[in-house]
Structures are given as C-alpha cells and as structure tokens.
Amino acid sequence: MDFKLSEEHEMIRQSVRNFAEGVLAPGVVDRDEKEYFDRNTFDQMGQLGLTGIPFAENYSGAGMDYVAYAIAVEELGRVDPSAADTLSTHVSLGSWPILAYGSEEQKQKFLVPMAQGIKQGGFGLTESNAGSDALAMSCKADPDGDSYVLNGTKIFITNAGSADIYVVFARTGPKELRSKAFSAFIVEKGTPGFTFGKFEKKMGLRGTQNCDLVFEDCRIPKENLLGKEGEGFKIAMQTLDGGRIGIAAQSVGIAQGAYEAALAYAKQRVQFGKPIASLQAIQFKLADMAIEIQASRLLTYEAAWRKSQHLDYATAAAIAKVKASETANKVANQAVQIHGGYGYTREFPVERMMRDAKITELYEGTSEIQRVVISNSILR
Ligand SMILES: Cc1cc2nc3c(=O)[nH]c(=O)nc-3n(C[C@H](O)[C@H](O)[C@H](O)COP(=O)(O)OP(=O)(O)OC[C@H]3O[C@@H](n4cnc5c(N)ncnc54)[C@H](O)[C@@H]3O)c2cc1C
Asked: Element (H or E) spanning 147, and its range?
C-alpha cells in the first residue's frame, strides 16, 4: 500500500463530520424510534456534494477518489449509520454500475442527476429464493419489440420507494447459460407495472427504508439495458465488490462512534470511588477497541485506494468488509458492556449502535460469503 491521506481527505472528513453532527445527529433517535427515512437528509447530502464524490466532474461528480468516499461514509456512520447506508447504496450500488457499464446517453440521463443528488439510486438483486446464491434468481425479462417485459419480485431493497432509479437484474437467457443468463436494467420509478411491496420492520438501520420491488409485465425500453445482454451477473458481482468498501467504511464509522461514546462514559462513570476508566479491565477493552478500529480503517482505505488506482480490489474489499463489520459488532458490544446496565437502555446511543452494527455482517455478502471470496482468491 502506498497512500497517505491528503489535505483534501482531511477537509472532506471535517466537512462531513460537521454535517453529521450538526444536521443528522439531532434527528437520529427520532428516525430510529419511529422507523422512517427522511429524504431531506439525502437531498442535503446532494447539496454538500457527497452523492457524486468519486465520479468525474463531467458527470457532475466531485472528481475525488474512493478514499475520500470511504472517509465520507465513515463519518456518516460514526453519527448516523442509516445515512451511511443510504449514501453507500446510492453511490456504490445505484450509480457506479451506470458509470462502469452505461452508454454515454445513459450516463447523461441517469448518472448526472444521481451524482447531483437530484435523483436517488437503488439496486435490486436479492429475491426470496436468491440471496447468497444470486444465480438462483427467477425474476425474468423477455424481449418484446423495442422493450423487455420484466416480471418478478426483489426483496429487502435499500432506498426502495424513495429512490428514483434502480439497477435491476433479471434472467434473459436459458439456465444452461448459467451466469451469462442474466442482464442488468435501469428501471425508473413510475414505470407502469413497477410497484413497491411491503416495508420491512428491522432490528437496526431504522432510518433507512427497505421494501420489495414488484414487477408485473413492466415494460423497460431496450435503451435501458445496462451493458450487454448476458452481462448482468458480472455487473452485479463487480458492483458488490465496490459496495463492500462502502460497508467496510460504514462499519469503521459505527465502531468509532461506539468507541468514543464508551470512552466518554468510562471517564465520567464513578464506581468504587473512582472513574471506571481508571480500572485496567476497562482500559484494556478501550485499547482493544482502538487496535481493531485502526486495523479496520487501514484495510478499508487500502481497498479504496486500490479501486482508485484501478488495481484489483475485489479481495481487498472482501477482507476489509469482514474485518470492519466484525469490528463494528465487537466494539459496539463492548461499548454496551462498558456502559453496564445503562448501555442496554435507549438513554445511551450504544444500544442503537449495537443494533445498527449487525447488518454489516449480513448485507452485500454475508461474512461467510466474504470468506468464500477470500479463500477462492487464496487458492486460485
Ligand atoms: C437491511 C437490508 C438491506 C438490504 N439491501 C439490499 C439491496 O439494496 N439490494 C439487494 O439486492 N439486496 C439487499 N439486501 C439483501 C442482502 O444482501 C441479503 O440478505 C444477503 O446477501 C444474504 O442473503 P439471504 O438473506 O438470502 O441469506 P442466505 O443466502 O439464505 O444465507 C443464510 C445463511 O447461510 C449462509 N450461507 C449461504 N450460502 C453459503 C455458502 N455458500 N457458504 C457458507 N455459508 C453460506 C449465509 O452466510 C447465512 O449465514 C439487504 C438485506 C437487508 C437485511
């Protein structure tokens, strides 16, 4: 690894931290308790230029690198993991595949307003019988004249209902074609035959919204095919490789937020006549948290740097995602432990952080699937 953070990186960290603490923090508890997504928070991220951080300026992006993007997601995650998820889904999953595989017309029509934060993006891959095993997808798109007719249901989709533009994957060929039997489509909200199903009630990330995308004889114009017919599975897998950098960054942020809360609490909580921070048992917990967070952060920045340098980043992203997501869960758990019984109540933010952390080990490939990716790369 050969990178160091620049002044520009430190500036983006400070500006996102100010936004997270000043604009997002006041509503975090309300959004979690009442379980709602506030589109206004996304719009404000757009105004700040966060929705197009890693995209070139000719597509209305900020022209920064993926390390800057990781820092922004991390800083959102430190205060509001839901906002980190909203941004990471929009940039890594909704926008990036259009940047990487879109025609110039598609980029101008879809990517530009997405980078500006005027339109929000989503990503529809998962189905009820196709989670880790994405090849088991049954959603299909049949060619008919100058359209494809899409039928099927996608589940758990982040930003669904609010997002305006979705990258959706469906079968376009026979089973024998295996991974080449799928294609990717750009589907706009409001297309006839495209509706939203039930909203999930979740353990954490309650400031995001997730629901089904339902397609019933939904006609997608052929010009909305993303990449070539048969390239869908490749596009999905490459998109998730990059998405994992966003989840790793979100995880580092969650861990950092929980660690800071535990540190502050340990200094002020007095038991046996002195702050619990003076007890070695607590000090060592804080030291272990700091070690794990720094290791996770460096792995995340390394994966982001590799992506910016156009080096192979798939394994680095999987390693960063496993390490950072497991760190977020361990650190949030220990932060509750340091708070004692108070940590189990909603009076303190660590209770929410522990709930918010769990999803990072599950989505965009579970920890088990990351280990499949990593071991395949080792043994290849
Ligand atoms: C809040 C949330 C947001 C999401 N957002 C999106 C989104 O925006 N777009 C989208 O397309 N999807 C989204 N998902 C779906 C998510 O990516 C899947 O839930 C995830 O990939 C796991 O699939 P599954 O839930 O079907 O679990 P399964 O695949 O059924 O896995 C169940 C268990 O079996 C293990 N397992 C499965 N296969 C293997 C294997 N080969 N080796 C070892 N262990 C294995 C898994 O690790 C897991 O522990 C979201 C999910 C949630 C909960």
From this structure: strand 147-158
Q: Is the pTM above the cut of 0.90?
A: yes
**351 catalytic per annotation:** no
Which domains, from first to last, does the chain contain?
A: 7-120 (1.10.540.10), 122-233 (2.40.110.10), 240-379 (1.20.140.10)
Percent of the chain residues past pLDDT 70, beyond the cut? 99
Tell whether the model's pLDDT for residue 2 goes beyond 80.
Answer: no
Residues 6+ apart with CB under 8 A from 223: 105, 106
With a 6 Å cutoff on the Cβ, whether 14 touches ligand 1 is no
Closest CA to 336 of 270, 280, 254: 254
Please identify which of the residues 200, 223, 364, 368 carries the catalytic annotation: 364
User: What pLDDT was estimated at residue 380?
Assistant: 87
Of 239, 249, 217, 248, residue with least CA distance to 125 = 239
Tens of pLDDT, residue by residue over 62-88, are 999 999 999 999 999 999 999 999 999
CA angle centred on 319, ends 372 and 5, rounded to 5°: 160
| HSE toward the beta carbon, residue 243, CA cutoff 13 A | 24
Q: Phi and psi for 166 in degrees, rounded to 5?
A: -125, 140
Q: Does residue 128's CB lie within 6 angstroms of at least one atom of ligand 1? A: no
Tokens 């000719």, located at residue: 58
Tokens encoding 328? 């977020």
Integer distance in angstroms from the first to the last C-alpha of the chain? Answer: 22
H or E, element range at 351 = helix 350-358
Closest atom of ligand 1 relative to the 125 alpha carbon? 11
Query: Which residues on neighbouring strands pair with residue 170, listed in sequence order?
Result: 183
Q: Which residues contact 42 (CB under 8 A, 6 or more apart)?
A: 51, 86, 87, 90, 117, 120, 162
| Structure-token pair, residue 238 | 């490459």
Q: What is the DSSP letter of 339?
A: H
Q: What is the mean pLDDT of residues 183-202?
A: 97
Pocket lining: 158 vs ligand 1, CB cutoff 6 Å: yes
pLDDT confidence of residue 4: 79
